[in-house]
Structures are given as C-alpha cells and as structure tokens.
Amino acid sequence: MTDGDNAASVVGITFDRAVSAGFRPEAVEGATESEIDSMVEAQGVSHIPDALRAVLRILGRRWGAAMPGTVFGVHGMSEDIREQALWCLEEGGDHGMVDPGHLFVFSAAGGYSYLVIDGVDLEQPDPPVWLLIESCQVKQIANSVTEWFGRVIDEVINEKRRLSERRAKGRPEPANEANYRWSDAINEDFGNGRPPVVTPE
Description:
Blueprint: H1 3-20, H2 33-42, H3 50-59, E1 71-72, H4 79-92, E2 104-109, E3 113-117, E4 129-133, E5 137-142, H5 145-168, H6 174-177, H7 184-191
Antiparallel strand pairs: 1-2, 2-3, 3-4, 4-5
Helix pairs in contact: 1-3, 1-5
C-alpha cells in the first residue's frame, strides 16, 4: 500500500468515526473523480494530495452538514477565491510558505479566511494545512490533511452532544438533528412533548 493509499484509508476511517457516533452519511455527498479533476484544473494546478482527494470523495459535492458556514468542494472553489487567498499572502508579509504562487485553496469562510495547501506540497500524500486570513495572518494550522479532517469530525461528533443537551432542555433544532440518528425511545418521548434525557449513540 502506498503512502497515498494509507492517507486515503485514514480519511475513510476518520469519517467512519462520525458515522459510528450517529452522523448520517447521506447528510453529505461526495464528488466524482472528474468533478475533482475539474476543480483542480480550475485553480491551475496538476495534482492535489491524496488525503484531500479522499475527503472530497466523501463530501466534495455537499458538505454543509459536516462543515457549516464554509465554502468547500467542487462547486465552491474557483480561481477568484484563489486570487483572494493570494491577496492575503501579499498583505501578510513573511509567512513561511515555500511556493505560495502555486497554492491550492480547498475551503473558505466568511469571505476573509482560506484553507490552503502550499504549492510545494501538492505532490505529497498528506501535507500540512495553512490558514490565510485577510487581516494579514498566515499560519500552519495542522501538520497534515488527515489531522485537519480529524478535527472536522471531532466537531461533527460534538455537535450531536450539543443537540442532545438542547433536546433534553426542550429546545430542539430539527434541521440540524436530521443529520444524526436518534434512538426510537428518544423520538417517542420527544414526539409526545416530554423533554427526553438524551445520550449520544
């Protein structure tokens, strides 16, 4: 098994952790290889890390349930967003990236922050992840794509705990709860208007 295969395997195992905790896999939708290739081409690069490609296969087309408030995936990234990220680097001064001119942007939030892979690392299977912010902040936030994705999944699991607590207090969030599995007993109690005691699966 190659390093790329290993990285992709870690991504799959990490996502399975969310599913085991109650997240519905159908709440997200993966991108096809051709869609990913088009996304890569649109940013003017020839290759992206295997770990990132594996993430896109899981939620590259529909991601909001796992990454709310972000722009992500094959229909979200564009050359315009890449140019905005490059502007952050110009304003940020010294930053430590080796080949920012060929960076790859894979997520954006609020129109002012971007997650990217340094151009020098695009051939690596599981490279570091950088955060660029328009307020001139540029920093490495994860040692690898798989580490970053692990944090995303931690947030997905923590979201069910938060929803559980709100349901127990009689303050449900039906739209968000639909992204998770709940036991029949819990659904019956909640349907009868009795505040249930909820424990995540």
